[in-house]
Write a structure and sequence with these properties.
Keywords: Signal. This protein is an alpha+beta fold and about 190 residues long. It has helices spanning about 1-15, 40-50, 65-75, 155-165, and strands at about 15, 20, 30, 35-40, 55-60, 80-85, 95-100, 105-115, 115-125, 135, 145, 150-155, 170-175, 180-185, 185-190. Helices cover about 20% and strands about 40% of the residues.
Length: about 190
């Protein structure tokens, strides 16, 4: 049984975006050679591993062309697996990552306060074989593409306006519903525009 779990973990890690330790102590998420590169301060990476040692960030290559094109339209530097922004309005840059362990998928925020990093689960779900989800193509809905259907981005539109001085976390399914969360008292809370 342990060898099967190790094989599953190895398989998921091989498809994961690597998380490296930042040389300059700041967080960065970018695309290089078609893959997401996540760089975190050593303390943030350690906090993430303490929260969930099996958590790995999704790889950009596991997204369909239509999802990646959507991100290019929003911001050419944006990636579907995470972003960096001040989530709790304390003047510090926080990190949002999207990934999975062997059982669940997660959107997780790494909050920075007083040089300490705290992981906060924003949302979790369980989709079997999420990387093989069939999605309609944006250019021709009769055509299908294969890829991860869920992505994260800073809150958009009316949600962004209402949150004012902090950035909301938008967890969205391709061609489906979006849910927006805000960080309140160190927790992720669903944010509804009233």
């Amino acid at each position: 049984m342990k060898s099967v779990l190790a094989l599953l973990l190895l398989t998921s890690v091989c498809k994961a975006a690597p998380i490296s330790i930042s040389a300059n102590g700041s967080a960065e998420i970018k695309i290089s050679n078609g893959e997401a590169e996540v760089s975190l301060p050593a303390e943030a990476k350690a906090a993430l591993k303490t929260w969930n040692p099996e958590f790995v960030v999704f790889n950009v290559k596991d997204y369909s062309k239509s999802v990646l094109d959507l991100f290019k339209d929003i911001d050419p530097k944006a990636v579907p697996v995470g972003f960096i922004a001040d989530l709790d309005a304390n003047g510090e840059k926080d990190v949002v990552l999207l990934g999975a362990d062997l059982r669940h998928q997660y959107a997780v925020a790494l909050l920075k306060k007083n040089k300490q990093w705290t992981p906060v689960k924003v949302y979790s779900w369980t989709l079997t074989d999420i990387r093989s989800t069939s999605l309609p193509s944006a250019s021709d809905p009769k055509q299908k593409e294969i890829g991860i259907p869920i992505y994260v981005l800073p809150a958009q539109g009316e949600h962004a306006k209402k949150l004012a001085n902090k950035t909301g976390i938008q967890v969205e399914t391709y061609l489906g519903a979006a849910e927006v969360f805000e960080i309140k008292d160190g927790k992720a809370v669903k944010f509804v525009v009233k």
